[in-house]
Amino acid sequence: MATEDESPSPPDITVMLKEQTSACKGARDAIAAGGEVVLYDGQPPQWMVVGIAATRLKRSLKVGLTTLGLDETVEILRARHRDEQLRTGNIVAADRSWFFTLYFDSTGTELLACSGLENERPSQENGQELQL
Asked: What are the angstrom distances between the C-alpha of 98 and each of 26, 42, 108?
């Protein structure tokens, strides 16, 4: 039984990663393989979180980066979570091959969406590396 001085235990992210998006399985696998999970305390507004995710999707498509569930995440956050404060977190695969972003409700108790971005070099045009 927790006392008033103890902080609540962090949520079990693996259990929360169901099938919200196509990135959930990869995120669960990354955790199981020793990936680092970081949850942030801040609660940015939904419009800001959606804007960042939409910009990340647009930029990733433009330079040819591999994503998982990012398009689904943008749709979920746009359609269902207007005017809410959200929480976010990250999972970095142990081999650093994938970076996952987690999107939670304001209490951090419901996982709304998950997206993944493969850590790869962007496509090259004219022999020059594209800048993100």
From this structure: 9, 23, 23
CA angle in degrees (0–180, nearest 5) for 83-51-18: 75
The predicted-structure confidence for 29-48, as pLDDT tens digits, reads as follows 999 999 999 999 888 988 99
Q: What is the Cα–Cα distance from 78 to 98, expressed in whole angstroms?
A: 24
Write down the residue that tokens 């990869």 correspond to. Answer: 26
**Is the pTM of the predicted complex or chain greater than 0.90?**
no
Confidence of residue 57 (pLDDT cuts 50, 70, 90): very high
